[in-house]
């Protein structure tokens, strides 16, 4: 691990150094794992402080305002926003080895592809016809880039990434293991109205699906600058228009984005989210884990959807919604509270019913 002086680290991450800034550290760690004088435990709560072992680390990174034992550390870095500080801190300790520029002899590159001289292409990678790859890109082994695709400067494609034809990546896009961009959308039609169309106007299936015809996708997938997509996620190409993800959006693992969707800037989409086709997602939208969004739904700017929610209709800008079907947060919690009261209400009603029956029985008894 590289070593860093405490005062230099504080300056690089926007923190405030206290005590001896000349102390050197070589590993950020959890408080319970701090055993060496070169460790830098991350202490962001009183609970984390309680896990700190005696001795060992002589410096720490702590949140502003957290009381620490007097004299426990010879040097400190104080930060106001711990997670933001981590985003600046951890890259300084990464042991990344950038592959040497050049095309591995076991890669297959079409003669018409245009690859910048400093691009690194790993073994078993296939680059199709009329592909353009800009400077600074790294393509690990076993990557596929379909014909006519365009990769902006500084993109990183990890092993197993699959790009279909006509995929466009902006600058500094990161695609993690086994991401698939540009497969055909889930689009089919039947000669006569099928069960899906019939179910829209009734509660019983009145039609059958026969001769299901595939609708091919002619559109592209277009990804903006600084987008990051997690492992095993998939984005389908548009049917006629494009599927678009705009600048700065971050997508977790195992996310499915259907054809013709448009995702805005700086969105955060957690794992196992499914977005059906033709959805319009605004800027800075946050989708919790396992959220499902029905087709043709629009989410306004700054919308937040709580984890495991199902969204079946449009949501206005700045709304926080949760549940299935998704409701405004306050209404959703009121429903949960109502469900929690059902048992007590049922017991009270049962008790009242028993009292009524007792009164009726007493009326039926002959007077003595």
TrEMBL record:
One Pfam family this sequence matches: Hexapep
Coiled-coil region list: none
E.C. code: 2.3.1.191
Active site: 259 (proton acceptor)
Pathway: Bacterial outer membrane biogenesis; LPS lipid A biosynthesis
GO biological process, alphabetically ordered: lipid A biosynthetic process
Catalyzed chemical reaction(s): a UDP-3-O-[(3R)-3-hydroxyacyl]-alpha-D-glucosamine + a (3R)-hydroxyacyl-[ACP] = a UDP-2-N,3-O-bis[(3R)-3-hydroxyacyl]-alpha-D-glucosamine + holo-[ACP] + H(+)
Entry-linked InterPro entries: Hexapep, LpxD, Trimer_LpxA-like_sf
Domain of life (superkingdom): Bacteria
UniProt keyword list: Acyltransferase, Lipid A biosynthesis, Lipid biosynthesis, Lipid metabolism, Repeat, Transferase
GO (cellular component) term, any one: membrane
rRNA-binding in keyword set: no
GO molecular function, one term: N-acyltransferase activity
Family: Belongs to the transferase hexapeptide repeat family. LpxD subfamily.
Subunit structure: Homotrimer.
Purpose: Catalyzes the N-acylation of UDP-3-O-acylglucosamine using 3-hydroxyacyl-ACP as the acyl donor. Is involved in the biosynthesis of lipid A, a phosphorylated glycolipid that anchors the lipopolysaccharide to the outer membrane of the cell.
Descriptive protein name: UDP-3-O-acylglucosamine N-acyltransferase
The organism of origin for this protein: Hypericibacter terrae
Organism taxonomic ancestry: Bacteria, Pseudomonadati, Pseudomonadota, Alphaproteobacteria, Rhodospirillales
């Amino acid at each position: 691990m590289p070593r860093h002086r405490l005062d230099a680290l504080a300056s690089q991450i926007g923190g405030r150094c206290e005590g001896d800034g000349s102390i050197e550290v070589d590993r950020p760690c959890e408080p319970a794992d701090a055993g060496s004088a070169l460790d830098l435990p991350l202490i962001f709560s009183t609970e984390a402080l309680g896990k700190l072992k005696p001795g060992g680390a002589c410096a720490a990174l702590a949140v502003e305002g957290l009381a620490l034992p007097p004299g426990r550390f010879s040097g400190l870095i104080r930060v106001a926003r711990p997670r933001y500080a981590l985003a600046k801190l951890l890259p300084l300790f990464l042991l990344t080895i950038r592959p040497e520029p050049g095309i591995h002899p076991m890669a297959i590159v079409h003669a018409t592809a245009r690859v910048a001289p400093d691009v690194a292409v790993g073994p078993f990678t296939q680059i199709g016809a009329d592909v353009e790859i800009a400077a600074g890109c790294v393509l690990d082994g076993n990557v596929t880039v379909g014909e006519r695709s365009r990769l902006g400067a500084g993109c990183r494609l990890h092993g197993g990434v699959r790009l279909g034809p006509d995929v466009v990546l902006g600058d500094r896009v990161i695609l993690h293991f086994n991401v698939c961009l540009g497969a055909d959308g889930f689009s089919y039609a039947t000669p006569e109205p099928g069960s899906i169309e019939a179910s829209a106007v009734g509660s019983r299936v009145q039609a059958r699906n026969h001769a299901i015809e595939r609708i091919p996708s002619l559109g592209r997938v277009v990804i903006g600058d600084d987008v990051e997509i997690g492992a095993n996620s998939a984005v389908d190409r548009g049917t006629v228009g494009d599927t678009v993800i705009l600048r700065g959006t971050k997508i977790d693992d195992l996310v499915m984005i259907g054809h013709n969707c448009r995702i805005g800037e700086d969105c955060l989409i957690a794992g196992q989210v499914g977005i059906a086709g033709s959805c319009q997602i605004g800027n800075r939208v946050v989708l919790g884990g396992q959220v499902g969004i029905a087709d043709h739904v629009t989410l306004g700017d700054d919308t937040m959807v709580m984890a495991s929610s199902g969204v079946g209709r449009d949501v206005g800008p700045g709304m926080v919604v949760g549940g299935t079907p998704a409701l405004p947060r306050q209404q959703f919690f009121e429903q949960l509270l109502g469900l929690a009261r059902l048992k007590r209400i049922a017991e009270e009603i049962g008790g009242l019913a028993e009292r009524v029956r007792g009164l009726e029985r007493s009326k039926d008894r002959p007077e003595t």
